[in-house]
């Protein structure tokens, strides 16, 4: 399958670029944005705003060596209890600064592993959120689930809490791959959790797979994919493993020589994509797939797909509030991020109620470029007329950049339109590289990134 890519294109796909779940990206956040800024932005939200909540649970009972998340392994439950005490205080403090009549339309619990919580604490955390915030009747409530260690009581608690969507981590079912990443998870226990969720009325299941893992090749990955397809998830994400041991020291446990090279990574993606399309899934953006009736596929079809720190989403809220250690919030004025460490987070919440450690106030140009990059990542297009309608004459500064991109990159990647271009299927694998052409921070940044594929 890599015959579809020239040697120069294969080399380009090894280029380190951001994933663009935000713009500007997190490496450019600074301490110039503080809790004082955060309070001002919360108070400035118009009454009646639609709000999205992200809640971070930074604990696991085992450490997966591939993981790039802010999490830590715990052997006792007491640190989780202490963390939840602080999290409840932050929830109450943030809610107190929001204007009246806001409505929460999306809630997402991530980690770490939210399902490390006891059934009682699942109910407790959900109650704290419902007490503090006005939750819309049609609120989408998603939880990231680790099938390992799941039991009936936790499934019952999640159903009682009103979860509507579950995201199940799989990565790969091959035992050699699992041994190399320190994540042992059978297909049978994954199937049992999927069945248990559906029996309790959870209407949407998402499965995450990874390519580029140690000892993984096309046949290994396709075998796991066939098992996943028997679960018939409504959505599926196919992420590239980001080997960033300079950021995540535990990734040094993965032998570098066991990692597939770029040609192998490309072949895994191409073959898996072809199989998913054959199985009836619509391709969404760069790395997501959904059944045609799923809301993600419908959003992609009608041009309302969005992208945030959880990836592709239908969430069109006016702001995203991050709760918990390392969580990032997004407001019309910019971004805020909480303390990343558990103890610094708890200390700051206990002192003042809020835990912002850094962030970034966006400029008009940032917002212009952010919309352009999101349009590319979601809808594979850039329309200068649309950008001008939203940002005025400022959008004209992108015209020479568009012309430069079309002149310098392969013509097969693009189809010209009256006001810009559409990225073709040949260009889709290069979306992050194309988006990076509109990133004015990239050249002056110090952050290191994973490869484009």
Pick out its properties.
alpha/beta, 19 strands, about 20% strand, about 450 residues, 2 domains, Arc Repressor Mutant, subunit A, globular, pyruvate-formate lyase- activating enzyme, about 40% helix, 3-stranded antiparallel β-sheet
Topology:
Elements: H1 7-13, H2 35-44, E1 50-57, E2 59-60, E3 72-73, H3 78-97, E4 103-111, H4 119-132, E5 135-145, H5 152-161, E6 165-171, H6 175-181, H7 187-199, E7 204-211, H8 218-231, E8 235-240, H9 262-278, E9 282-284, E10 288-290, H10 295-302, E11 306-308, E12 311-313, E13 319-323, E14 328-331, E15 334-338, H11 342-352, E16 356-361, H12 364-379, E17 381-383, H13 384-391, H14 399-408, E18 414-417, E19 420-423, H15 431-436
Parallel strand pairs: 1-4, 1-13, 2-3, 4-5, 5-6, 6-7, 7-8
Antiparallel strand pairs: 8-10, 9-10, 11-12, 14-15, 15-16, 17-19, 18-19
Would you kindly provide a brief summary of this structure?
This protein has helices at residues 7-13, 35-44, 78-97, 119-132, 152-161, 175-181, 187-199, 218-231, 262-278, 295-302, 342-352, 364-379, 384-391, 399-408, 431-436, and strands at 50-57, 59-60, 72-73, 103-111, 135-145, 165-171, 204-211, 235-240, 282-284, 288-290, 306-308, 311-313, 319-323, 328-331, 334-338, 356-361, 381-383, 414-417, 420-423. The chain is of the alpha/beta class.
């Amino acid at each position: 399958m890599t015959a579809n890519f020239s040697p120069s294109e294969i080399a380009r796909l090894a280029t380190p670029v951001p994933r663009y779940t935000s713009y500007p990206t997190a490496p450019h956040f600074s301490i110039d944005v503080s809790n004082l800024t955060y309070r001002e932005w919360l108070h400035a939200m118009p009454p009646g705003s639609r709000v999205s909540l992200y809640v971070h649970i930074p604990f696991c009972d085992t450490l997966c060596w591939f993981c790039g998340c802010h999490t830590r392994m715990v052997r006792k439950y007491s640190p989780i209890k202490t963390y939840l005490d602080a999290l409840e205080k932050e929830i109450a403090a943030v809610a107190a600064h929001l204007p009246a009549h806001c409505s929460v339309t999306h809630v997402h619990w991530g980690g770490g592993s939210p399902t490390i919580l006891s059934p009682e604490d699942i109910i407790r955390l959900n109650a704290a959120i419902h007490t503090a915030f006005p939750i819309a009747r049609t609120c989408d409530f998603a939880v990231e689930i680790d099938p390992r260690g799941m039991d009936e009581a936790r499934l019952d608690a999640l159903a009682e809490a009103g979860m509507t969507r579950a995201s199940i981590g799989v990565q790969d079912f091959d035992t050699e791959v699992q041994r190399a990443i320190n994540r042992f998870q059978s297909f049978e226990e994954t199937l049992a959790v999927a069945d248990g969720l559906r029996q309790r009325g959870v209407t949407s299941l998402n499965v995450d797979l990874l390519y580029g893992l140690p000892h993984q090749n096309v046949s290994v990955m396709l075998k796991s994919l066939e098992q996943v397809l028997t679960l018939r998830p409504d959505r599926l994400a196919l992420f590239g493993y980001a080997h960033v041991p300079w950021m995540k020291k535990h990734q040094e446990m993965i032998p570098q020589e066991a990692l597939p090279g770029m040609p192998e990574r490309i072949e895994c993606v191409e073959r898996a994509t072809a199989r998913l399309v054959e199985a009836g899934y619509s391709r969404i953006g760069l790395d997501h797939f959904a059944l045609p009736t799923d809301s993600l596929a419908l959003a992609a079809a009608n041009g309302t797909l969005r992208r945030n720190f959880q990836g592709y989403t239908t969430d069109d809220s006016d702001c995203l509030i991050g709760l918990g250690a390392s969580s990032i919030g997004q407001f019309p004025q910019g971004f805020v991020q909480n303390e990343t460490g558990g103890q610094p987070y708890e200390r700051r919440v206990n002192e003042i109620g809020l835990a912002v450690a850094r962030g970034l106030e966006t400029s008009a140009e940032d917002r212009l470029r952010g919309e352009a990059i999101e349009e590319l990542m979601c809808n594979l297009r850039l329309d200068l007329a649309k950008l001008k309608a939203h940002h005025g004459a400022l959008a004209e500064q992108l015209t020479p950049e568009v012309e430069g991109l079309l002149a310098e990159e392969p013509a097969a990647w693009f189809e010209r339109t009256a006001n810009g271009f559409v990225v073709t299927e040949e260009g889709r694998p290069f979306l992050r590289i194309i988006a990076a052409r509109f990133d004015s921070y990239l050249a002056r940044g110090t952050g290191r990134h994973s490869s484009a594929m």
